[in-house]
């Protein structure tokens, strides 16, 4: 049991170290994937499009760096900026969303990449604290399992 807990502890420790060391690559991959999701954005029930809409609605942002990122997409030439970028759903018309100058007043102007990464970094202290707490419980479990094992093997010949 102690060996199994030690193995789980080492796996969690390695995952945390790898996540910390490669955090810049994770950001770069996230940015490129977000750009790709914008490029391939459509109105159908595509998971990537739904994810972009959810991020934009939840974080009150639009595009990767800013709302003008949508101007370089095929979706913009057909329908303009998506409605998920609108500050108020009632005040956004399709004509406003097709004109970048009018859209600037109606949509969120901040990009999503910075907001997502800053939100993740602000929550990292909570994740690290919870992980540290779990690791402490695992270490206590490992120590107690070793003590129990030693107690059982030492008293093996005294049993009647």
TrEMBL record:
Keywords tagged on the record: Glycoprotein, Membrane, Transmembrane, Transmembrane helix
Gene name in the database record: Tspan6
Alphabetized CDD domains for the sequence: TM4SF2_6_like_LEL
Transmembrane feature ranges: 126-152
Name the record gives this protein: Tetraspanin-7
Native organism: Menura novaehollandiae (superb lyrebird)
InterPro entries: Tetraspanin/Peripherin, Tetraspanin_EC2_sf, TSN6/7_LEL
Known role: May be involved in cell proliferation and cell motility.
Gene3D superfamilies per UniProt: Tetraspanin
Membrane topology recorded in Swiss-Prot or TrEMBL: Multi-pass membrane protein
Subcellular location, record wording: Membrane
GO CC list: plasma membrane
The keyword RNA-binding is assigned to this record: no
């Amino acid at each position: 049991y102690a060996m199994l807990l030690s193995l789980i502890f080492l796996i969690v420790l390695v995952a945390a170290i790898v996540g910390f060391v490669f955090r810049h690559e994770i950001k770069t991959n996230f940015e490129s994937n977000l750009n790709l999701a914008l490029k391939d954005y459509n109105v159908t029930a595509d998971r990537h499009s739904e994810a972009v809409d959810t991020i934009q609605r939840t974080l009150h942002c639009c595009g990767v760096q800013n709302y003008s990122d949508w101007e370089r997409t095929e979706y913009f030439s057909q329908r303009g900026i998506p409605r998920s970028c609108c500050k108020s759903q009632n005040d956004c018309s399709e004509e406003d969303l097709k004109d970048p100058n009018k859209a600037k007043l109606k949509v969120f102007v901040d990009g999503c990449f910075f907001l997502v990464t800053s939100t993740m970094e602000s929550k990292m202290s909570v994740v690290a604290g919870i992980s540290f707490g779990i690791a402490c419980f695992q270490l206590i479990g490992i120590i107690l399992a070793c003590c129990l094992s030693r107690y059982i093997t030492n008293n093996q010949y005294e049993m009647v």
